[in-house]
Every structure is written in C-alpha cells, then in structure tokens.
Specification:
Elements lengths: L2 H18 L3 H15 L5 H8 L3 H4 L5 H13 L3 H8 L5 H4 L7 H11 L4 H9 L11 H16 L4 E2 H18 L5 E3 L1 H4 L4 E2 L2 E5 L4 H9 L4 E7 L3 E6 L4 E6 L5 H9 L2 H12 L3 E4 L2 E4 L5 E2 L4 H7 L15 H6 L14 E5 L10 H10 L4 E7 L11 H17 L4 E9 L10 H4 L4 E5 L8 H13 L5 E2 L17 H11 L2 E5 L9 H10 L3 E4 L11 H10 L13 H7 L5
Parallel strand pairs: 4-7, 11-12, 12-13, 13-14, 14-15, 15-16, 16-17
Antiparallel strand pairs: 1-3, 2-4, 5-6, 6-7, 8-9, 9-10
This protein binds one DNA strand of 29 nucleotides through α2, α5, α8, α10 and α15.
Length: about 575
Amino acid sequence: MKNSEIAEVFENIAGLLELKGEIPFKIRAYQKAARTIEHHPVELSKLVEESGTEALREIPGIGEAISKKILELLDTGKLKYYEELKSEFPEGIIRLMDVPGIGPKTAMRASKELGINTVEELEKAILDGRLASLPRMGEKTAENILRHIRTMKTKDQRIPLGQVLPVVDDIIAELRQRTDIRSIEPAGSLRRFRETIGDIDLMGTSDDPEGTIRAFTQLPQVVDVLVMGPKKASVVLRDGLQVDLRIVEDDAYGALIQYFTGSKQHNVVLREWARRRGLSLSEYGITNLSTGEVERFATEEEFYKRLGLQLIPPEIREGGVEVELAEKGAIPRFVEVKDIRGDLHVHTKESDGQNSLEEMAVAARDRGYEYIAITEHSPGLGIARGLSEERLRSQIAKIEELNRKLKSIRILVGTEVDIRADGSLDYPDELLGELDVVVAAVHSSMNQERAKITARVIKAMSNPHVDILAHPSCRLIGEREPVDIDMEAVFKAALETHTAMEINGQPQRLDLKDIHIQRAKDLGVPLVVSTDAHSIAQLNLMRLGVATARRGWCEARHILNTRPLRELLEFCGRNG
DNA sequence: GCCGTTTTCGGCCCGACTGTTTTCAGTCG
C-alpha cells in the first residue's frame, strides 16, 4: 500500500471522528499523521521492510496506536478500526464536508434530520428551502453554501504553479507602475512553490494603502471584486483565478507574511513549539505569555530569530522536522538559481523548439552560464521532428563551428534520446559515443505494467553512454498520471550505473517531484536541474526547477550542473 | 492520539468572519 493511500485512510478517519464529535486533539493527531505520511520521502512499506516496524515510531506524530494501524494496512490492505468507523455513518457523508461552509455539525444534521448524504441531495435541499430550516441555518447561509457548490463544479480546484507565475509577475509589475507600493511579494503556496496553487495571496506595504487597494481592484485583468476594505481586497481575474492583496504596516510585515506563507501545518508545529517555551504566536507578532507583552517584527527573519530559529526557507515549511532542525541550526543552505552553471536539456528549431542554435547559446551565455547542452529529440519521436542520424551528425558539426565562434560559453553536443518500449535506445551506441551528454527519456508506451517499465528504464540507464534520465515519472500535472515505475529501484540503478536523475523545470512536469528528489538525494543519487526549454524565454524555468530541488532539501553539492564544466564532463565520462 | 528542558498525565495554535443569535456556534485559513 502506498503512502498516499495510507494518508487517505487517516484523513478519512479524521473526518469520521469529526462527525462523531470526538475531542479535537484526537482528530488533529490523525490529520497530522496523514500529512506527515503523505510528505514522507520513503514509502512506509520499504521503511518497514528495511528498518523494521520500530522505524515508524521515529516519525514525528506517529505513536503506538497509529503505527499499529499502519502495519495492519501494510499487512492486510485493510484496517478494522476504519471499517467499523465507516459503518457507523451513511456512505459518502464525509464528502459533504468538502463543500466550503459545511463542517461536521451541519453535515450530521443534514444527514440525520433531512436524509442528505450527497452533494446533489444537499443542493436540492437548499433549493426547496429545507436546509435553511435547520437550527443555526438561515436563508443567507444556505445561499452561500449553494454558491460554493456551484463554483466547486465549474472551477478546477488547484492550478499548476507554472500557469500562475506569469499572471502574478504581471500583477506585481502593474502595481509597481501604478501605485506607490513599497514591498510586494507572494505568500501562500505560491511562495512555497507547491506544484499546484489554489488562490494567489499577495502582501505588501504602502504609504497609501487605500489608494493601492483601489488601484488593485481597477487593474485591467480584474473582472470581479469580491471584497474591498481599506487594507485588503479579493478579486477574480479573467481566467477565474482569485487574488488577495493585503497591505500591512511595516512593523507588522514579518509576522504577517510568516503567517500567510504557511503551510498551515508548519504554523501549527511552530506555534506548539513556541507555546512550550512560553510564547504565543499570531499574525500580529509574538506574545510573551507570562507578561502579555506583544513584540512586532518588520521581517520574517527577525520573527524566526526571536524564536531562536534559523530562517526556514518557505519551500520546506511543511510541518515536518524543519522546526526541530532550525533550532539546532541544522538547515543547510539550499541550492539557488545563481549556483547553476548550465542547462543540460534544451531544444532548438531543429526539432520542436522555437529558437535557433545560436540564439539559445547566446541567451544561455547572457544568463551567465558556463555551458549549455543542446538535446534534440531522436527519430522515434517523429511528431517532435526528431533528428535522423544524418541530421544529428550535421548538428554536431554546426555546434563545433559555433563553439569556435562563441568564446565565453561551451555548447555541449547532446541528445534527448528516446527509450523505446523494449528499453533499447533510438540511436546506435557508436553515435551516442560521439556526444558530450546523453539524456534519455520515455515518451511512449507509458501504461506498461510496473515490472516491465521499471526494467525498461533500468536497461536504458545501464547503457554506458546514458548520463541523465529525463522526467523520470513522465507525469503531466493535472493531465497525465505518472507511469507506474518502481522509483526506489530506479534510484538504486542510478547509483550503480552512474546515471543522474533530472529535475525537469517545465511547469506541467516538475519531474522528479519534491519527495522523490529528497529520497534520491538521501541515497546519494546525482541530480541535475534542467529546463527542457523549447524557447529562449523558457530558460527562465530554471527558477521552478531550482525551487522544486529546494523542496527536496537539495544543496548545491547535490546538483551536478552547479559544478564547473570539467567536473561535469568527467561525470559524463568525457575529458573536456 | 501524541508527547515531554515545567509534565508518563495533562496538556494540546490562533484569530477572524458570518449569520444567527441576544452571547456565540460553526467554519475557515
């Protein structure tokens, strides 16, 4: 049983306990365990297999009772406690609580008194006025719930990060132009670079909050203003995205951005931690519980510092071990975009890219890179104008010529060679041997069963010419599920065959994903961060790839393309 | 149900909003 499935069971148990009216702390314990398991970098089945059943207890938030339940789930695929709990309630009732505005109390009353157990039945009961007749319910509440049901139906809940970033950049640029806003930055899951985003949260400081808020609600891309007060507004953009802007006073900025960056779980852990030390945290500052005195903070750094903690990078604020480590000063400096010395996966016009070879190389040079690998598709990918052997040979010649011309950057001859269904590669070994960098990737037969696709990919990695496995899971966020591959086996093969795993910065890919990156890093698997750019502009996706690496706790030393050219070529088995 | 530089028992994050109530329950982030 996978971690995500185990987490779902505990999430559901928490929901059922809420309906039952259990004490909130028990409910929170299950919720916390679910979150922790969901973000755990190692499959618990592997963990138990390799380190024994006791290893579960080491995970924070997992004690005796929950570890027993995990073992039962791993052994039998079922959990007696969960089955019994489910049987106490009508089927499907916890889904009612997915509707904003419906909590456990309302869900129970609706079910008991009105026989409502699905969202459809709920909608009907609102329309014929039955819901409003319940105690503490009224016309207005019912109407709001109905509105939420309708938006749930039309709106995709979460949007891929990459779609949101350019929108945010635009808004920030316009606000800077039109108002006297001083600092402005995103908070929330956007600042943490989660792979999908719900709403956009922006925070800033300004001498004229009201004027700034007004200008914000009047931006051309705004179609609807939901809330507008003196310090805060919520608007809806043309594409349906909701954006909140909050203007705060300078000396409150630190505590507020900390609070709104989250994650929720991180804040809970941080507040529990502070409470044990006699401090109470809120979005306004830090209260000393014995004196009642409140301290305010202009920056987040000061806020964490007052708690005796390192500044915790937003990317890892998930409510795991980060607070504990920050206390010991044990959070390392994570990789940054400026550490990256080159991009190892880009396309040009020759295959399915938009810019010429020289344009890409010059753009890379202008970014300050030392090297860039041109990695076109191979012939098997006809749809992407994959290069025939002859065309690849002629590209090698062109690159050699360009290398003589452009002095300050080294263009590496590469390929993104297709891994065929049987694990063989789409170019002969002899030709692959002439290249500086060989990136291999799966682009077809993605629904092969687990054992088959795992063996296929490992076979390709075992080819001595292959240096990097690109987008290992092949997922497209919100569009295509990852292939069913044994990632742990792939990582072990990577160690044996000296193959690097790619962290692909394309917004719909972000592949490897955060928890796999963390696991690969812990195992010592070499990693690269690449953009898979199909245009000059996409070279900027490096920031997404790097943020994803940071979510996997990577330092520069874990990332191959932070190394100088000579070391990189050594890894690839070339001598420069 | 979890956890321990106050505790192996008795705590457990904090504040705001909304609509329904006449002082607050329920929900949310």
